[in-house]
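Job type: complex structure
Entries:
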Amino acid sequence: MDKETKTKIHLFFRRLFKRKLVMLAAILVLFFILTAIFAPLLTPYEPNKQDLTAILQKPSASHWLGTDEAGRDVLTRIFYGARTSLIIGVVSVLISAVAGVTLGLVSAYYGGLLNTVISRFIDVLMSLPSLMLALALGLVFGHSIGSLMIILGISTIPTYTRMMSAQVLSVKNQDYITAERVAGARNSRILISHILPNCFSPILVLLTSNIGMTILAESSLSFLGMGINPPTASWGAMVSAGCSKLLLNPVYGIAPGICVCLLVYGFNVLGDGLRDVLDPRLRGSL
Amino acid sequence: MGRYIAKRFGQAAIVLLLVSLFTYLLLYMMPGDPVYAMLGGDITREQYDIAYAKMHLGDPLLLRYVRWLFDFVTGEWGNSFKYSEPVRQIIAVRLPVTMYLGVWSIIISTLAGILFGVICGTKRGKAADSVIITCANFGAVMPAFWLAVLGMYIFSLKLGWLPTHGFTMPSEDLGLSIQQSILPLIALSVGGIGGTTRQMRSGMLDVVRQDYIRTARSKGLKESQVIWRHAFRNAVLPVVTLTGMSFRNVVAGAVSIEQVFGIAGMGSLLINSILSKDIAVVQSCIMIISIVVVMSNLLVDILYGILDARIRVE
């Protein structure tokens, strides 16, 4: 890496973390990423191993957040739940970004019938409640981790498509694109090597805040029993199971929800911070 | 204006048509036999054959879809195998419950959000602003189901102030209805309050920088007049759009909140029929919810057109 790039990166992070809140959000997100990666090292317990001698215990020295209805350590399952949330969040956002960006590029660049068809499809996705759509798609695709990622990804496609369409329309008729075309460049080349790189910053901003939204959606689906299959730990499913055990171990139902709030909040603030640094025109409110 | 309304109507109609196509195809995209999906697993061979003929499964798909759509439009929504009742009757009981909670939640979140947003926008950087905006940012990301569980633990189980379960319409028993609505409404509204506050705050911050606000101040108007008569009117416009979109979020919230509090509304009907694969009910639920959501969006867009002259001209 040459010196100039290094200075640029340094400057970028300095501007990003100038706001204390963004710094805090980054630490929050990093904290959950680390607990997800190092989950096995942080706890002596297995996430799915049942211990029927220690059912629904209140928090104690050996089980900091108590145990659940199968005697599993709640804190351990929260660590592993971070894994589930982050993996599903990141992968489904990537799926949705690839699909949404492609649709946006193609529809705005070529226009015509293709644009009409894609726009109507996006209209439908935007006007339906995404949770209802996810529940309906669950009937078709089932509830494996892969299908869950696709289902959750589909609901955020419109954000990318709209943004890409706007970007493409704004650069499509500029001189350098016309020059490329005159020079004989193919459409695919123009799209991939000239238009796409221009859109890197807004895509990054959307990716970050959509991870938060997707994690929130995943927790809702898991809460309803339509998310990831048990016994894999998931925060939403833990709240759902803990809901009926509130009098025995209230922490079991409440703590995983706090984790959802913190992680989603972290991604949202980080997304806002990125937007302020990368795209001053869209400066928002923190 | 007439053209704008006609265009928005056309768009809404296309969206609903596409939704109906997807909803119809759901039956065939599901793994398994469509007849069993429609009637449940435990039917005899004769019942199967009768249903097969009745569903016209030999006909082309497009013809079947058109027939299904016609039936739906004329109010013929089939029977639920789980409840053994016509779907129309089930929905007629449950839709008012969700609409009642949903409309109240939208009113609460819009009014509270606007109020908090104006406070933030006019007291930028002060303590009140920081506290409110931090709460709003957290409120916007709190899962509704978790708020419901938390509220139930604190106010029903620990303090014993409010009932844990059930819902009564206000026409039957007003006192009980209010008691039972408080927790679901809080859980349903907090996200909306957070979102509206954020939108209203940034709207106010944008507007107060404009020249006409400086003009209003310099001609000696009182600060309250400047804010409410001049700044507020323009800052509130984007909130109108947000309110239209909030029907979508209310549906999402209603599904899990109705589960927590055992409320027999559309949300719990949708999730229960999906869990039991009661496809006739699932299809009708999706159609009805979509119609309500799309129509509310349409209404808000038209309202927006009336309020904002720039849209009309476009």
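Summary: Chain A has a mean pLDDT of 84. The interface with chain B takes residues 120-121, 123-124, 127-132, 135-136, 138-140, 142, 212, 216, 219-220, 223-226, 236, 239-240, 242-243, 246-247, 250, 253-254, 257, 260-261, 264-265, 268-269, 284-286 of chain A (CB under 8 Å).
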